[in-house]
Amino acid sequence: MMRPITRFIALGLIALCATSTGAQGQNGFNSAAPSGSWLVTADEAIQFKGQEGFEMPPALRPRAQVPIIDIIKPEPAPDLKVKAPFAITVQFTGQPDSPIDPATFRVMYGALKLDITGRITKFVKVSKDGFALENAQIPVGRHRLTLQVQDEKQRLAERELRFEVE
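The structure corresponding to this sequence follows.
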């Protein structure tokens, strides 16, 4: 059960000042940015369990030769707290036998992994080396983003970014 203040915080989730093309995400839901340039609306935060997603333990991943996703900014740390606006910089490293395929990049939000990729890629160009987003406007609250990318051999890398905006 969510505490009233936590629910209030969860209602204001993720605004990276984006609008999208309206394409459906991999979860079958429309990934078009809602009006007002929010990446995730208050209704989506509840529907896709944003608060619960923050609190879930990270998924176990198989050990194999997969691409690497490094989060440069904000520097990941337990109990990471940031003030909006802030920069998000991500670096991809492919394995020697296969480069990164930037077209496979995905960003999922919350426990139910709402696909918000189109809302971010409208403002940044994702390359085989990664991307940088300056001035991410994200409202107060705790957030979980799951980043995914594949190499040309279709090996999937996944990395979580959990943070709290103060």
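Confidence is low (pLDDT under 50) at residues 1-29.
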